[in-house]
Write a structure and sequence with these properties.
Layout lengths: L1 H8 L4 H13 L6 H12 L2 H9 L7 H20 L20 H16 L6 H23 L23 H18 L14 H5 L1 H20 L1 E2 L2 E6 L5 E6 L3 E2 L8 H9 L44 H23 L3 H24 L12 H24 L7 H8 L1 H9 L2 H7 L2 E2 L1 E5 H14 L2 H27 L6
Antiparallel strand pairs: 1-4, 2-3, 5-6
Helix pairs in contact: 2-3, 5-6, 5-14, 5-15, 5-16, 5-19, 6-8, 6-12, 7-8, 8-10, 8-12, 10-12, 12-14, 13-14, 15-19, 18-19
């Protein structure tokens, strides 16, 4: 009945069942005619079940996946372009969790869900591995182009990067690394999974033990390195207001520190990539210790610590290893979607896991054992953001796929279906940069600048309100409409 259940869920078509049946037979699992007939009966269940399967229509796309992915892109645009005037929604300067801090783990969570669905069947393992590697390379390429320093969109009408200072890490690079590890585990273990789960709450966990082992190994590597690695003093150079180069020195000489100056996450990146290849505008400059304008950016205090102007990579190597756990939890949600038929069973699994994660995170944070920290991608941060992602995903599932309230979320679905296009052209400002390239007299007199100033800021007599409304209507709503048109035309940009 397991495969019948999958057809009823809309996760696989009748043709897909035939492919799986043929694959099992050709794979040498059944050597005799009687064995083949037993296998066929096992796949289809009773004669009534077989007829029910044949009567089912083609698979129905789970709308929640696209809506959740679209929500993540919308959040990214909102916090990137409105966070400058609303510091409370921008990334937390260090410990804590703001709206912006949910974007990356939401991305990784839904990547994990998609991996589980994409690799629920692997006919040729070698081909699957090639596709995984190719997609990883594509993500790395676009990540370096967009966030490595080559693109200066949308504000500067210039391009190019000094290879001595190119930034090797970024959002897509982190997604690429996490996707590579998690997808390879999923593809390589596809033949080790049971087709039917046994009874009991934890059978879904034991059935996919290798995925959880992979996440646990990532967790152990991160925790041991974070608390055991010795962090020495380090130095950096920075440009003063007059453009002159100055030298900064940070005193450390310790282990297990979770502060901004002497943590192992920053040390690993300085050693692997080099201090000149790290992000040179870290959010910690908005800390109370660094500026009087907290929580906004502003002039440094006279007695500001030496680390305040130092570089730090928020999408670095060690923190990306921790991020593997976020995608592993997403993979679990995808497995639940595959194996459980009823909405109630799915929601019980999803919500219970989410609540446990949130409780663990709250305990770790408020006992100061491991504070929530996006920059370090701490374990409490992984648990909290994955738990919230699970709750949001469950709510979307109830509203969209159970109760059928799909219309209010259509614009999120459309954006989610063309997430890469909206990310590149919208969130990374490539389209805005193109429009800004057509100006009148000076670069400040372009269509985008005119709309921001005259249609929004001047009308509302407020920089903050005008900027927020511009982001909502001229960016998010605009890309929702564009994505809807592209969806109607059947045009999608996929890696």
């Amino acid at each position: 009945m397991a495969d019948v259940r999958r057809v009823e869920e809309g996760l696989i078509t009748k043709e897909g069942l035939e492919d799986e049946k043929n694959e099992k037979i050709s794979g040498g699992e059944h050597d005799s005619k009687d064995g083949n007939e037993k296998s066929e009966m096992k796949d289809y269940g009773t004669e009534e079940d077989r007829k029910e399967v044949e009567a089912k229509p083609k698979s129905k796309r789970i709308a929640t996946l696209d809506a959740f992915r679209g929500l993540t892109i919308v959040l990214m645009i909102l916090v990137d372009d409105a966070g400058g005037v609303y510091a409370r929604i921008d990334h937390s300067p260090w410990n804590g969790c703001t709206l912006a801090d949910f974007v990356m783990p939401f991305f990784l969570f839904i990547v994990g869900v998609a991996i589980a669905l994409a690799f629920k069947r692997v006919q040729k393992q070698q081909d699957a591995i090639k596709k995984i590697v190719l997609r990883t390379l594509k993500l790395l390429f676009w990540g370096i182009i967009l966030q490595g320093g080559y693109s200066h969109a949308p504000d500067e009408l210039a391009y190019g990067v000094d290879m001595k200072q190119i930034r090797w890490c970024g959002i897509l690079q982190r997604i690429a690394l996490v996707y590579l590890i998690v997808a390879l585990i999923e593809a390589l273990t596809v033949k080790m999974r049971p087709t039917v789960l046994g009874s009991g709450y934890f059978t879904i966990f034991t059935a996919y033990r290798w995925q959880w082992i992979g996440g646990f190994v990532a967790f152990i590597i991160y925790m041991i390195t974070t608390f055991a690695l010795y962090v020495p003093d380090w130095a950096y150079t920075y440009s003063d207001n007059d453009g002159s180069k100055k030298f900064g020195m940070v005193k450390c000489g310790m282990r297990g520190d979770l502060g901004p100056a002497c943590n192992a996450v920053g040390y690993v990146d300085r050693q692997v990539w080099g201090v000149h290849h790290l992000y040179n505008q870290p959010v910690w400059i908005r800390l109370k210790a660094c500026t009087l304008s907290y929580p906004e950016s502003g002039p440094l205090r006279d007695n500001a610590p030496s680390f305040c102007l130092g570089p730090f990579e928020p999408e670095g190597l060690l923190s990306s290893i921790s991020a593997i756990v976020s995608a592993t939890i997403g993979v679990h949600y995808g497995h639940v979607l595959i194996h459980f038929k009823g909405h109630v069973e799915r929601l019980k699994q999803w919500v219970s896991v989410a609540l446990v994660l949130i409780v663990v995170a709250i305990i770790l944070h408020f006992t100061d054992a491991i504070p929530l920290n996006k920059q370090l991608y701490s374990f409490s941060y992984v648990c909290f953001t994955a738990g919230v992602a699970g709750i949001v995903f469950s709510c979307f599932y109830i509203l969209i796929d159970v109760w059928g309230f799909r219309t209010p979320f259509l614009f999120l679905e459309w954006i989610g279906m063309n997430a890469m296009l909206v990310f590149v052209l919208g969130a990374q400002g490539i389209l805005a940069a193109f429009v800004n390239g057509w100006y009148y007299g000076t670069p400040a007199k372009s269509l985008v600048h005119w709309i921001v100033q005259h249609v929004f800021i001047n009308v509302w007599k407020s920089q903050k309100v005008g900027t927020l409304l511009y982001v909502i209507f001229a960016e998010i709503t605009f890309w929702g409409v564009v994505s809807g048109i592209l969806h109607k035309m059947g045009i999608y940009w996929k890696l």
